[in-house]
Known about the structure:
It is a single chain. The protein is α+β, with helices and mostly antiparallel strands. It contains 8 helices and 7 strands. The protein has a 3-stranded antiparallel sheet with strand order 3-4-5, with helices on one face. The chain has a two-stranded antiparallel sheet with strand order 1-2. Strands 6-7 form a two-stranded antiparallel ribbon. β1 (about 80) and β2 (about 85) form a beta hairpin. The longest helix has 27 residues, at about 10-35.
Amino acid sequence: MRVARVSTRSLAWRRRMAATAAAITAGLCLVAVNAQPAMATPPGIPSKSTAQSQLNTLTVKSEGSMTGYSRDLFPHWITISGTCNTRETVLKRDGTSVVTDSSCAAVSGRWYSPYDGATWYAASDVDIDHVVPLAEAWRSGASGWTTSRRQSFANDLSHPQLIAVTDNVNQAKGDQDPSTWQPPLSSYRCTYSKMWITVKYTWGLTLQSSEKSALQSMLNTCAS
Length: 224
């Protein structure tokens, strides 16, 4: 009776193949994880309870006039670091695998817009939304601010005032408040209301009665 013998070369080859298969499997898992869209998450989004407390303290009054308004009175986008301005900074913050050139312009990357659930691969398809629009801020108290304060508001990276979203969705929003416009993706309306409320609270802006009612309804959908 002859006993089959396996050469050391055959064993080594099988081990290499097993190791290669394991590496490929790990790589596929990594690709699957990275394929998930990165959610744009501005800083300073409060809890539901904090947003509720802030909403309760905001002053309700009729909107002010648009007389004298100009976007130029809210200077943006300003230089943040090196050659990067505010828009470019938010694109890098809210995107995934963003690559920039020597002037800080995004030449590739992936952006998930939480307003509508769309994913984009060109920075030109993405706008940086002012959560509380500049014109809305003007009507809510910013008309009395200094240009310096308006500049700080328009480029606020410390609070949830700036977010990368689909360009035509941002354009459809325009300068509307939540009583007439809310994110098309209803599951994001809770977060949007918390962002809107804390920006108005932080900057001492007022709100209309209809705006407050809409914000309360949106906030009521939040779990926390």
